Amino acid sequence: MEEDVDVKPLSVATAPPFPTVIAPKRRYGTRDEFEDWTGPSRRKKAKKSKNAVQDEDDDDNYDPATENLEWKQWARELETDIVKIGKCSRWGDDDMEEDQPKKKVLAQHETPSELVFPLLPFQGEFLTWSLSREESNMRGGVLADEMGMGKTIQAISLIIAGRTAGHGHDPNAPDAKNLNTTLVVCPVVAIEQWKSEIERFTKEGTLKVLIYHGNRKHITVKELAKHDVVLTTYSIIEHDYRKILPDKLSAAKDDFSLLHSVKWVRIILDEAHTIKDRASNTAKSVFALQSCYKWGLSGTPLQNRVGELYSLVRYLEINPYAYFFCKKCDCKSLEYSATMCDKCEHASTLHFCWWNKVSFACGKSMKLLRQKLLDEMLLRRTKIERAADLSMPPKLSFVRKVVFDAKEDDYYQSLYSQSKSVFNTYVKEGSVLNNYGHIFDLLTRLRQAVDHPYLVVHSATGASGNLLSEGSEDTKIACPRCETPLTVDAKSSKVVGKKLTGYRKGSIINRLDLNDFVTSTKIEALKEEVKKMISKDTSAKGLVFSQFTSMLDLIGYSFELAGVKCVKLDGGMSLSQRSTAIDTFRNDPECKLFLMSLKAGGVALNLTVASYIFLMDPWWNPAVEHQAQDRIHRIGQYKPIRVTRFVIENSVEERILKLQEKKQLVFEG
Ligand SMILES: [Zn+2]
Ligand SMILES: [Zn+2]
């Protein structure tokens, strides 16, 4: 589905996010869930193994030979803590109140003189905390402030203050590969932004910045060493890591990764939840980087399961939580070997990690996790908590309900009844589950039809695909806008009008006869709202989000006709195209709208120059919509935010809204 930008299968999209880091629901913490990221449990594995280990459950027995091993001492310490915590109780029980995380009381570090703006009080507190983390055994941590609270500026202040405090490599063990450079890893959309924030927030010459992206063959260790900050992306790290993978099939000529060949003073992962799957190549390539200190920045360190935290713990190499311990000897390792341990002579089934020993379904384990680990490694503040520091303008939300015109309604209703009859057939056959993908397609088409019938009729595959294979000849329906019948492949039947620049090759615009171009009810409603916006405040700008890139193209073309300047951000754009678009939007007073898909623009973009948001189609998951809003509801925003969502009455969208309300309860409860 080329059109379909952000849609995920229902099962994924409907998984509700955690309300906060600290209050997971019971069903996320089952043992089974942990097994898929910590490897099979010892019991299962031992049963499968031919040379089954006999003493698989003996770790509580007294054994003088292992009594002084680190893990046993640690286990005893945990026992004591568990007794202290008291009876096992589940989340949501009456002990909720005492479960509230205790707030850290932190002194406020003064703003480093190299910064141009003073730090806000909570940002100064981070500086105190982060410097103390670097001086502790943790040697790093996670800044998990809610989105829009200035995590970047806080990280920049740490780089500067850490240098002033003399944080760095052990002077007694000099090594040519030690660099006093901080490596920042971020999504590609954020790379230019990091550079410009460093320039904007620090006095000239404070930090020398190098972008390690694109053409980088000429860059040497010497070159890296000349800079204070090197900016790169997760995909570069992953790409370069492939060259040095231990199990690589063939050794190519350049099996060398510059970023992995040095020891950085500090690594900062922006949007650190990118590595939440510890088995992914992205995570592995990041784990392989070396540094004195390691940091993660993430507004959502925990999206679905407690297990996702393990990856951050592993990245930070927190002792003992990140390690696999051997029950028989003092071996401990960050990796779980396949059958026999690489480091000692014992079977890998004799090795365990804390994360697959405990059950997080049990309240006391969660408390332990929080008190012993999260409180130490993670700092999280919310905008509401620190509203006084932030003095953020209010956010107003509106739902604009619109009604189809008669033709659109006819079209939608026939599409709907066709989809429904296909669905009913599956129900009768009992094959709903087998046809899950197809049903999802049908649903997506309905959602597209609500935006503009063109999205269905002129989709890249034509409309003759799945949808009508079940329908008979006489149920053919035509586009209410251009009368193109649904069963005809739109690509070949249409004479394309004047050629347009600025649209990518596969764009829907190139498949339309632009002489007959018509907008849709929804686009007209958007045009009205934008008109209102400009008449209220001539300097106002807005972001327009849709899940369908073709919808963005149709909107872009409609505004082009109306003489309103827009820029667009989609997944297929190069780094320089992106930064040109962002630059134009920020600096050109004529440019009023930024059209984007959440996939391309949903993360790590600071667009506070805009104060209006238009959401063209509802998402299954309300958290995703929040992410869109956080692009502009953040530090640096001085105007009240207005969020408008467009919903067509009596359509599939109203049902999605109902579903969202339910989830909102889960989200907030
Ligand atoms: Zn061993
Ligand atoms: Zn071992």
From TrEMBL:
Any Pfam family matching the protein: Helicase_C
Sorted keywords for this record are: ATP-binding, Hydrolase, Nucleotide-binding
Under CDD domains, the record lists:
DEXDc_SHPRH-like, SF2_C_SNF
Return the InterPro entries for the record.
Answer: Helicase_ATP-bd (IPR014001), Helicase_C-like (IPR001650), P-loop_NTPase (IPR027417), SNF2-like_sf (IPR038718), SNF2/RAD54-like_C (IPR049730), SNF2_N (IPR000330), SNF2_RAD54_helicase_TF (IPR050628)
Looking at the record, the residues that make up the Helicase ATP-binding domain are 132-319
What segment(s) does the record annotate as region Disordered? 1-65
Q: Which GO terms describe its cellular component?
A: nucleus
Query: Compositional bias (Basic residues) spans?
Result: 41-50
Task: Give the matching SUPFAM superfamilies.
Answer: P-loop containing nucleoside triphosphate hydrolases
- Ranges for domain Helicase C-terminal come to 522-669
Give the GO biological process terms.
nucleotide-excision repair
A GO MF label: ATP-dependent activity, acting on DNA
What is this protein's name?
Uncharacterized protein CHR37-2
